[in-house]
User: What shape does this take?
Amino acid sequence: MSEEKTWKMGASIGKRVRNYLIFFAILILLQIWWEELLRSITDSLSNEAELGILNKIITSILTLIGAIALIILNLGRDVDLHNLLDKKLFHVRSRTGEIIRREMIKAAESVQANGYENMSKKERQNDVMYLFYHFVNEQEVLRALAFTYWEQYFVNLYIIIFSILGLLFSLGISLLRWELDWAAFIPFLFLFIGIGVGLQTQSSLVKKLYDLPKQQIQELKSSKSVELKKEVEARFG
Assistant: This one.
């Protein structure tokens, strides 16, 4: 993947995740202070001066949440958090890499390239990936689709993690409050979001991520079989 496209994808992920983080933080704050907030709104509706103060307070709180979210995301970007989460918990990138290497070896064998056997050696795995990107970076439509799928996958990872953390926090708050009102159902909202996004990711998005490299390599075999054979023999022969 090109550095420019990767940077743009990272920036887009950060922007989208920040919005989700603010949303989840507001849910937690509402669960803690919804009664006070409702009382303030009711009182402010009858007093224009108090309404102005309430607007300033809400604006300040949202600005503070946004700033905290930005700090968290910058820290996450510094440690490459979404790739770290995938590596430790979900393993989609490693499995996609295995699919790419397997399909590239099959493609090299199908064009009868000398040296394709060397592609299966463990120490040549990175070379196989470089060969893959050497060709697929020229497939503009499929390449753009790959960035779209990966961006959505990484955003979904953050949503799932935020949902788990939000569920734990909101359950703790519900136990401390020990009141049966609408705020007591916020943990179920976190649970619903986490399960919904998780199921959609596993049933649809991950399958697309696994199938797309196969489609890219199939197109490579169809349109650039001669170039593929030359590259394999030059790199692995």
Summary: Residues 2 and 60 are 39 Å apart (CA to CA). The mean pLDDT is 81.
